[in-house]
Amino acid sequence: MPVRRHPQIPAFALALMLVALAACSAPGGGARSEDARPVRSAGPLTTVAPSDEAPRTGEVPAELLDEILADAIRRTGLPESELVVARAEETTWPDGALGCPEPGQVYTQALVDGYRVVLEAAGDRLDYRATSSGSFRLCEDGGRPAG
Question: What average pLDDT does this structure show over 91-113?
Fold first, then answer.
């Protein structure tokens, strides 16, 4: 009876598979830096849970959260003491639109590491989307960028 052999896997493909497996086995899907940026403590802000889930906070770098809060203050005219962080979390967006595509725009079709920050402001929800490099935008209900 003849011996059946499996085709050999090229060394490059094998190396690529090993790298992919190693990346998937790291916590959070990738290696974390030991010198991660500090995060802003809740401080004077009150963290409350949206009605459907528990709050997730502490993952957004302090500098980025400060910039988002400054934008919310500018947009709403409210003092920081009246803004509530309902959600502040690290996430990976499916593409460059950050889950908030603008009609007629073309976005990178690659995963984008970033953050989502949801603020409560006088009964309104402000849904901010950010990249890990620090650029952010306010996303209106329905997934459209705010003007």
Answer: 94
Q: Tell me which H or E stretch contains 11.
A: helix 11-25
For residue 81, CA distances in Å to 12, 30, 72 come to 56, 36, 12
At residue 47, φ and ψ (nearest 5 deg) are -95, 120
Distance CA 134, CA 100 (A): 16
Q: What order do you get walking across the sheet with 124-131 strand by strand?
A: 83-93, 112-121, 124-131, 136-140, 144-145
What residue has token string 């009964």?
A: 123
Q: Is the dihedral of CA 71, 129, 119, 81 positive or negative?
A: negative
- Residues 94 and 131: their CA atoms lie apart, in Å, by 12
Q: Are 111 and 79 in contact (CB under 8 A)?
A: no
pLDDT digits (tens, 9 = 90+) for 28-61: 444 333 333 333 333 333 333 344 444 445 689 9
Q: How is residue 58 annotated by DSSP?
A: S
Look at residue 129 and tell me whether its pLDDT is greater than 60: yes
**Tokens 């090229």 identify what position?**
10
CB atoms within 10 A of CB 97: 20
